[in-house]
Amino acid sequence: MRTHESLIDVKPFTVCLHFHGNLDFFLGLRTHCKNVERSLSEKTSIKDVIESCGVPHPEVDLIVVNGEAVDFDYGVVSDAQFDLYPPGIQYPQFRKQRLQVDTISRFVTDGHLGKLTRNLRLLGFDVAYDPQAGDRQLLAVMERENRALLTRDRRLLMHAVVKTGYCPRSQDPDEQTVEVIRRFDLIRLIAPFTRCLRCNAPLQEIAKADIIEKLEPLTKIYYEQFRRCTGCSQIYWAGSHFPKLQERLKQIRANFGG
Ligand SMILES: [Zn+2]
């Protein structure tokens, strides 16, 4: 609560925020510009000012005021103009003051992102997913297993314990997949068909002789290479899963010129 003292300590002031790159996604359709003004009358952290505009802190990689980079705890006490940048924009002079990491390649996704989860697992990424998980469970898995949180729930992304996370802009799972690869710089880490789409455990190659009694007659004849999930024992082979998935992989890679 504000005390009488703090009210007389700080005169009302205005903060201008300029959101760069795709951060305007969070400003809403009514805002057709990337600038937001906030009137304040007490000392406020820049993190709280940013989130009051609807932009979750894990989406902001660099905060610049008066030519200096500052962190989320920076206290705003007078008129000021801030520039906010998302990850992925080049700014060599501030290389060391970035607020986000792009070295995480393990994720936890919320219950609405089942198709994105499947795509990421297809590419070999470790994605924890439980369609029944509540917010508390998602945050617990994120913290305990050092995963980045993927969710379109911006309130959840604003939770204080979230260090690394991302809100997919698109509602299309294939476009979301491209966004995540871009945000976390995953293109070189793609290892298709190494992870179970159902349970997220790694796959291992298995000799045909070891599973032959489980195969359908035609599969026995036409396929030689098999992989088995180390978690749920699901068997994968080229005929059942690869053609469609190869096509999807090709489309995803096409976005990166590869
Ligand atoms: Zn499995």
Number of domains: 2
Topology, number of strands? 14
* Share of helix, binned: 25-40%
Number of helices: 9
Biggest sheet architecture: 5 strands, mixed
Low-confidence stretches: none
The side-by-side strand order for the widest beta sheet comes to 2-1-7-4-5
| CA-based gyration radius | 23 Å
Give the N-terminus to C-terminus distance in angstroms.
Answer: 55 Å
Could you state the order of secondary-structure elements as H and E? HEEEHEEEEEHEHEHEHEHHEEH
Instruction: Give the cofactors and ligands.
Output: zinc ion
Q: Features of this protein?
A:
binds zinc ion; four-stranded parallel β-sheet; single chain; five-stranded mixed β-sheet; 258 residues; 14 strands; 21% strand; alpha/beta; Ubiquitin-like (UB roll); elongated
Describe the structure.
The chain is an alpha/beta fold. The chain has 2 domains: 4-97, Ubiquitin-like (UB roll) (Roll); 106-254, no CATH class. The chain is built from 9 helices and 14 strands. The chain has a 5-stranded mixed beta sheet, with no helix packed on it. It has a 4-stranded parallel beta sheet with strand order 9-8-10-11, sandwiched between helices. Strand 10 (148-150), helix 5 and strand 11 form a beta-alpha-beta unit. Helix 3 packs across helix 6 (173-183). The N and C termini lie far apart (55 Å). The mean pLDDT is 89. The site of zinc ion has 8 residues, from loops.
